[in-house]
Design goal:
The structure holds 2 protein chains of 2 kinds.
Chain A (H helix, E strand, L loop, with lengths): L1 H4 L3 H23 L3 H17 L10 H19 L9 H7 L2 H15 L4 H12 L4 H8 L3 H23 L1
Helix pairs in contact in A: 2-3, 2-5, 3-4, 7-9, 8-9
Chain B lengths: L2 H9 L9 H24 L5 H4 L3 H24 L14 H16 L6 H6 L6 H20 L7 H20 L8 H26 L3
Helix pairs in contact in B: 2-7, 2-8, 4-5, 4-8, 5-9, 7-8, 7-9, 8-9
Classes of the chains: A mainly alpha, B mainly alpha.
């Protein structure tokens, strides 16, 4: 995105192409099987992204901006078609809400874990994210239980330190 | 059209975007509209005592009041140009100039006998002042609408209202050059009413004009 803003058209095209899967799944999740409408919305969103690039602040994360645009396009689309949704079908639509936050959070967690040593990252992922017990994680990695505990402890501590400096 | 073709077409024309492009664009819209409004004020005629009034407290109090409203609301409006911006928290800053002007008005009232209050409040021009402010705000509002055509506001009514508020406040600022009224109570009532009218019109038109 940043290079596209600088006027690099190859980067811009690559960005738009890279966004396709995310946008298709975003609209697909909410509109269900109405395939041709999904593609229409994807195209409209690409046009909006292109035309309204100056509303993006390079100092801030990109995904919230992208999904805010997509969300507006979706709401506008629903309003224009005067589309109504039977209440029984509203659940998957609402479940879709918050999906982008969860995805963004997952990306953040992975980015943070990659700043740790591989052993610490592995220990945290196994015991805190995948829900294994300390013993299971130790057996899977072929190291001692106390080693796993220490890795988790040190890893979390350095993550906490990192987050504190980031938020400052 | 095929999505790949669309991407090719879009990326055929990628003008670079400068770092503060959003703020530059909002400022440009505002300044062009403001010049038109200034020309209208010049057509109305500047107040005859303009040079001497530059020394007076009331002139500067008026200017401070309207300019600070304009600055706060234009910052809010520029923010709403980003789709991720939906919080109204910062608009509470607008209470500050209002309180300041109310303080000045109370000070003036306490220095005047009660019989003089009515004249201070209504002045000579109370019936046209709000309407003139509203009318003068139109070019600035249109300039801002032009600026927002490349931005991505998601709260259209709110954005329209803040854009109207900005336009009204700048119009009132320029109107100061014409208007001879001096009392703070007059400004607090009738200028504010004109600015609020502009904000109301902006809120009413926002969803229609700013849609994308």
């Amino acid at each position: 995105m940043v290079e596209g803003l600088a006027g690099n058209s190859t980067a811009h095209a690559a960005l738009l192409r890279a966004l396709l899967p995310a946008l298709r799944s975003y609209f697909g999740r909410r509109l269900g099987s109405l395939c041709e409408e999904v593609e229409d919305l994807v195209q409209e969103t690409l046009i909006s992204i292109h035309e309204r690039r100056i509303s993006y602040d390079p100092a801030r994360p990109f995904t919230p901006w992208l999904y805010a645009i997509a969300r507006y396009r979706l709401i506008d689309h629903v309003r224009r078609r005067r589309m109504t949704l039977p209440i029984e079908d509203a659940e998957p639509f609402l479940e879709g809400e918050g999906f982008e936050d969860a995805t963004a959070a997952k990306i953040d967690v992975e980015a943070l874990l990659s700043t740790l040593t591989p052993k610490q990252a592995m220990a945290i992922r196994r015991t805190r994210l995948e829900g294994l017990s300390t013993a299971e994680a130790a057996a899977a990695a072929g190291i001692g239980e106390s080693d796993v505990k220490i890795s988790v402890h040190r890893g979390l501590k350095s993550l906490a330190g990192r987050l504190r400096t980031v938020s400052r | 059209m095929n999505t790949d073709e669309l991407i090719l077409q879009l990326s055929a024309d990628v003008p670079p975007v400068r770092r503060h492009a959003l703020h530059l664009r909002v400022t440009a819209g505002m300044v062009v509209g403001g010049m038109l409004t200034a020309a209208l004020v010049a057509a109305l005629g500047f107040r005859s005592d303009l040079p001497s009034s530059l020394d007076g407290f009331s002139f500067w109090a008026k200017l401070t009041y309207t300019i600070s409203i304009a600055c706060i609301s234009v910052a809010a409006a520029a923010n709403f140009g980003r789709p991720t911006e939906t919080s109204t928290r910062r608009t509470w800053l607008l209470a500050a100039p209002l309180l300041m002007m109310a303080g000045v008005a109370i000070g003036e009232l306490s220095a005047t006998p009660v019989e003089g209050w009515r004249d201070m409040w209504l002045g000579q021009t109370w019936s046209i002042c709000p309407l003139l402010v509203l009318g003068l705000s139109v070019p600035i509002f249109l300039g801002l609408v032009w600026a927002f055509r490349r931005l991505a506001p998601t709260r259209l009514r709110l954005t329209g209202a803040v854009a109207g508020l900005t336009a009204g406040a700048w119009a009132a600022t320029l109107y100061c050059l014409h208007c001879q009224e001096t009392s703070a109570l007059f400004v607090l009532t009738w200028y504010s009413l004109g600015i609020l009218l502009a904000a109301g019109v902006g809120a009413a038109l926002g969803p229609r004009l700013l849609r994308w």
